């Protein structure tokens, strides 16, 4: 199957860093004459992003087009009879999202469909807590009542699979080379007078980093402008400081080093905000993220000043590998290793993150996939800790 791009679930939101995203709907025409049909090869992926059964949007297409539909859930085939243009089906998908996904009150797509009194469908919003009615005049409602959504399961158990060697490439030679890169760029930062006052240290030892974190955490409450980050908000406004940062970094990626990027962040007044890392990761890193982490290590060390910042950094990685570059999923252990080696994520934080699925930054299924991919690194951390304890005995 051809790889689909990713778009905002609400396509009226023109923000590349909007939290809720889905794959672009793909279509494939099969057959001829009266037997011609439109197959939607990635309907399961699209529906998963919407937290709806794939039969619902497929049936919605049929209702809107006056066409018969068929589903083969076992073989993951969802079909609408007739030849239908992909653009038209994407427009219809927007209609489905508006009618059966978005909360009528806050327009957030994080909703569940539930049946009230057996035959009334409402959208239960996890974002604002409100329940809003679905227009029961639409033909799809009859299908939903007859085929109600499965109830959400509480607390999934963490699975354990075979673990690869996450420590690959962590030899002395690579560590030395990495240290040289970090110290070289940190030296460049210290030469800059505007940033010299901020005391960028070339010392990247774990003790030094933790000391900086403790010192900076103490001043977070008074140093942050405008108080805490807007929890749960992704800055849908493209003119927000975060939207401006994202666009600027994408336009200047490769042209600016850590100093230039940090100056821009300072200019926007968001150098203390943990959400800055969420946006920065998505805008700055590409499929070469492992190498790029070492390149921008001093910048990350400067911005990551608390556990919240670490979690936001990991949230950005979730979006990067889970949504923007899904081909990077097998490289998640190497990405985490690179972050760990430059001391911007701590063992306790990444272990807690890796063992608790969360819908804060991506949808639940994507969160599961990213954490599943991280297992080799988490296993390596566990074994490394055991080895240290044994050597101390």
TrEMBL record:
The protein's name: W2 domain-containing protein
CDD domains, per database record: W2_eIF5
Basic residues bias locations: 151-161
GO cellular component: cytosol
SMART domains the UniProt entry points to: eIF2B_5 (SM00653), eIF5C (SM00515)
Protein source organism: Piloderma croceum (strain F 1598)
SUPFAM superfamilies in alphabetical order: ARM repeat, Translation initiation factor 2 beta, aIF2beta, N-terminal domain, Zinc-binding domain of translation initiation factor 2 beta
Basic and acidic residues: compositionally biased ranges: 162-178
DNA damage listed as a keyword: no
Protein family per UniProt: Belongs to the eIF-2-beta/eIF-5 family.
PANTHER family according to UniProt: EUKARYOTIC TRANSLATION INITIATION FACTOR, EUKARYOTIC TRANSLATION INITIATION FACTOR 5
Record keywords, A-Z: GTP-binding, Initiation factor, Nucleotide-binding, Protein biosynthesis
Record domain W2: where: 235-391
Any single GO BP term: formation of cytoplasmic translation initiation complex
Chain positions covered by the region annotation Disordered: 147-178
Pfam families to which the protein is assigned, alphabetical: eIF-5_eIF-2B, W2
Listed GO MF terms: eukaryotic initiation factor eIF2 binding; GDP-dissociation inhibitor activity; GTP binding; translation initiation factor activity
